[in-house]
Amino acid sequence: MDEVKVVVAHSERATLRVGDVFLKVDADQARIDVEVEAMALAPVPTPEVLWHKPHVLAIAALPGATIGRLGGPSTGSPAAWAAAGAAIRKLHDAPLPPRPGGAGRNIVALAAELDDECELLVRNGLLPADLVTRNRQVAEAALRPWTPVFTHGDLQIAHVFVDGDEVTGIIDWSEAGQGDALYDLATFTLGHEEHLGDLVAGYGTDADLDVIRAWWSLRSLLVVRWLSEHGFDPFAPGCEVDVLRSRM
Known about the structure:
8 helices, Aminoglycoside 3'-phosphotransferase, Chain: A, domain 2, single chain, 5-stranded antiparallel β-sheet, 3-stranded antiparallel β-sheet, 10 strands, alpha+beta
């Protein structure tokens, strides 16, 4: 008999695996709607949608394995990273989806959110002031105008599956929409700077590495407190706090 495996769970959403089926339960129905729409539009491999009802989405498992995970070694070869870069470029070259995504927030609002979060990180004693100040300076380079593209919006390394050197699918599209291409590249390489060159080689165009590094700092500053409050450990080796420390 297949067991029920909890893949990830917190107060906003949970993902369960039963055999070759993943069940995504989300308190926000809009995120499920975005995910289903984005997978239908994306010109890259995505999981098969088996069915979806209010607050639940059932998708089929993908072949292969993730290219790696944050805080752990990458199991993907340089060619697999280049293939991921080529798939991301194909997504970014596609026609724009109808709505803004997680990577498409207003620059002024994003800067204000970042400043508020930096203040809370220091006030609550989560991170030292010098670490926050330095990374806030680095993050400034990401706060610039960009031309919107079709972005995944939460392109963590664990969301891309490969079989050998071939991308077999990309999962978790609930933040997809119009956004900054370099945010996707930064999210994918967070904690794996050693593979940035392989990814950009596959992506096939010049990418501003300073902006990608700025997004590493910005994303990490924004999520440390949330992760800490929802049962995750951003202080684990190779994770968000180590990313911040690497900018010092």
